[in-house]
## 1
Amino acid sequence: MFRIFRKTRKWLLSQQKFSKYFIYACGEVLLIVIGILIALAINNWNQSNQARDRERFYLQGLHDEFSQSRLKLLNLMEVNQNSYRDARKLAVMMEQNIISNEAELSTLLFNSLSYEIDYNPNNSLVTEIINTGGLKDISNPELRSHLTMWDSYLQSIRRQENSLREQREKLLDLFRKETYSIRTILQNTDISGPVLGNSQPNPEISNQHILKDREFENNLLI
């Protein structure tokens, strides 16, 4: 097409028809401008398509990632609820001077102090999106806001976990002394095999007096 334009332009110049040449040249420029605009529109459409493709990829990945994180959270909540339930039972026993058998006490102590309390969600994709500026490809402003604040949510949880871990360590420190027996807890909760191997059980040392330990009660209730 541009070859035809050039030939027409040369013919108009050879005929000295300058006014027609000027009109024709303007028309040619207009066609070029229109062509550029069309090219830009197509490019923008392609970019828009690419952005939508990235968003679809991100949304699917985020859905999978947060679905797994949700399952982790539900499992952790169940574990923590069970730990809280048994810790509460210990507190009631101490308050009401309830006498418990060694097996029940060992189970309550083990469940209250031994299970994982940290939440470790899957964060690889959301971290990548934030670090690479991918948030601009997320069209939903509410979702962008949640993703932006996600790390702050986790930091808040970390602070709570650290506080709980400190209290738990204070409780566990009591069992590092000679006053109480971790072995008794392990033997009464069927954990002694994996932990202690096939060693001959020692005579059981009772942990019943922990129910009258004020330091243990204070740290348990904090």
## 2
Amino acid sequence: MAQHIETSKFNEAPMRPVDPPQVVAAGKALYEKHCESCHSADLRGKENVGPNILRSQDALVDMHGESLDPIIRGEKSGLTNHRILTEKDDVAAVAAYVRSILSEIGSQGRAPGDALRSPNILVGDAASGQHYFEAKCTRCHAAEGDMKGIGKKITSPKTLQSAWIRGNHFGVPVPVITATVQEPGKPAVEGTAIHVDDFLVTVKLQDGTLQTVRRTPQTKVEVHDPLEAHRNLLPTYTDKDIHDVTAYLVTLK
């Protein structure tokens, strides 16, 4: 995509006249008192309670209250029980506040400022992460060995999380998968695994040439994948496991 979805202006709100700041401030106070309990502080609504105003078509097209005012007063068909305010100035103020928020809306109905926030992924429990590490990872890794200082070496928690899940990170060569093929009565063939399936095995030899062997019931094939343990664990992780291990690894300075 030519432009990142978080900064795209494709879904930005239409241009509207700017409402007076004092009216917007009054509307904010009224919204917090009468509307926030159902539609939440950031206007994104609450499940089974109130809809997301940031994605409301009525709110998105409202220019001067022509769409929002009837809803707030409970006069729109199907929303007669939604009679929140009746005073004209109060209704206009709440509508002005909603429009002020929509003027800063992000792409895909994001609340204002969401695209600029840097989420903190360190939400796990380091002690639980250590327990998981010791139970699942110490066959190949050691906190005081190859993993010592990993939290200092990879300073970004997001990069660190991606690295340990995949088994490597950007800038570090992916470990080579090798294969050894033994056909009856022939010398073993060993090299970098290029293709392995139930019928054929192709390896790259030391001289750079490719050799393909057709598999038979008598053919013995051994694949040596340095990241096999990581691949086997992928389907077993829970979100909590991932968060906990990441929280633990950042402590290995």
## 3
Amino acid sequence: MAPPRAPPPPPPLTINPPLLNSANPWATTLSHLLTLYASPYTGAVTTRTSLLDGYPHDDAINQYTFFSPTTQTPSTSTTDPSATSASASASLNTLGYSPLPLRTYLSFITTISAAATASAPAENENGLGGSGGLRRDKPIIVSVTGSPADVARCYDLIRRCAATVCMPLAMEVNLSCPNIDGGKPVPAAYDRAAVVAYLVALRGAVAEGVDADGDAGDGESVEGDGEKKKAVVVPIGLKTPPFTHAGMFADFVAALTDVLPTPISFVTAVNTLAPSLVLVPSNPNPNPDAPDANTTTTPSSSLLRPALGSATGLGTGGMAGAPLHPLALGNVLGLTRALGAAEALRGRVMVVGVGGVEDAEGWRRMRGVGAGAVGVGTALGRLGVGVFERIWRGVEGRATAGARL
């Protein structure tokens, strides 16, 4: 029996325009994803992070809210985006992953592919979709997580789906959710050995996929009747948590160089920052001798309680939006420089910048520090899919004005 074929170099992830949504609660349902895909201002669509079997979501402990980063005042205690004030540019969440399993997302993608195939092509010279139909070349990034063996299985399922749909697919492995314990003290991306374990599993999955397709060595597989079919290799990315010192960047990039050739095409930076806490006034405890474990006191003795429920009961979760933006910029810059300094990775791994972007200026800042594309999360929840038009029209407006000078 022939040994498994060596995996080919990872294909690049092309996002045009370089603007997309991040994996978040507003990319959970088919309606969410179809609306994002239909927008002419998204260059790719990312699904909410899923597991092979779905996450056991509990409304009592898996919540989110928007809040003002200056006053710390939540816009709403009911997690209703429609009640969000203009000043509530930050978010806090105690969410886990999507309650929908990976196979459900693959069925959503099949449905979107059928709709795109049935509609008139909708590309123009700028890569933006028009009003006549759905683009067929817009990538869908399927965000997944689980054990190394689980994500290898996820890759196989996504690869098989990619062979049947009209649009390119990619896979993002979320190694950074701060709200999941799973028996481990830190998100996997903080642990070099854990990252290496995922990379080994992913490289093996890619090699097995190529071998299963009977790759002929030129990116095409030969079928029994002599007809050639393109072998499917899906771009893979890793989603990272915020890194806070130089050693974290060095360890992460060292993990990537421990497994060469790398199976990775992109890194999404960053996920939310935890442990973060938003407090709201609480009614006075009627029994001061038995204080509520979920309240704390300020120097003025005002009783406060967490704005959100959480699995721990402490109400801490991941912060995103405007307060995260400077840290996200620093992470994108740090990663692009660290990746560029590693000869084996230089020019091979794109960074997708995520964190606090809600306008053209934020997009430009991300691009200015090296992001190949820019993702939007909290602003999508606050402002809806129209935020992408707002951002891209701002980008184009500045470019048009500059061309006239």
